[in-house]
Amino acid sequence: MTTKNLIFTALMTAIIAVLGFVPSIPLPFMPVPIVVQNIGIFLAGILLGRKYGTLSVIVFLLLVAAGLPLLSGGRGSIGSFAGPSAGFLFLYPVVAYLIGLVRDLYYNKINLIILLGATLVIGVLMLDIVGTIIMGMITNLPFTKSITFSLAFIPGDVVKAIIASVVGNILLNHTRFQQLLK
Q1: Could you give phi then psi for residue 67, rounded to 5 degrees?
Q2: 8-29: per-residue pLDDT in tens?
Q3: Are the beta carbons of 92 and 61 closer than 8 angstroms?
Q4: Second CATH level (architecture) for the domain 3-181
């Protein structure tokens, strides 16, 4: 790992942490709130690729596990990985890796359609559906109810995916940013 990669990884971890300061939106019918930090998870994969994007998310989660209040709402402890949000937290590195994999495969011909497609399928559908299924298992909700609850996240996460894809597309296709990544 070069110093440049270390700095980019640390910066992405910091961006994800700062997004935790945006207040979460609690939902009255489920224990997992709507958070903005997903944008940072999506951007980690888009901007840094599968290796360093995933590493930045893992470092973020280790900081949360160590007790730093970096999750939305000022939460942070090892207990966060046993609560209703656990499925989402464990999927964060997987999402960053898979979005980063798509970014790495199409790096020379990256465009908004590729980024948005990957972020919608992996970052929205997979994260929301699998995360709410795990939340349902932890909270003893029936499978069908968990899937129904996942629909509450879809509209906001689509907006987050669009934001991350547009920002990622602009940066990845900007010559100065490309020079920084080399």
Answers
A1: 110, 0
A2: 999 999 999 999 999 988 888 8
A3: yes
A4: Orthogonal Bundle (1.10)
For residues 46 and 168, is the Cβ–Cβ distance under 8 A?
A: yes
Q: What is the pTM of this model?
A: 0.94
Instruction: Encode burial over 33-62: b for 16+ CB neighbours within 10 A, e otherwise.
Output: bbbbbbbbbbbbbbbbbbebbbbbbbbbbe
Integer Cα distance of 160 and 138 in angstroms: 26
Instruction: Return all residues near 40 (Cβ < 8 A) that are at least 6 apart.
Output: 12, 15, 16, 19
Task: Identify the CA nearest to 160 among candidates 126, 116, 130.
Answer: 116
Q: Would you say how long the chain is, in residues?
A: 182
Compute the distance between CA of residue 116 and CA of residue 37 in angstroms, rounded to an integer: 17
Answer yes or no: are the C-beta atoms of 77 and 146 closer than 8 Å: no
The packing angle between helices 154-172 and 38-65, to 10°, is 100
Domain coordinates in residue numbering, the chain: 3-181
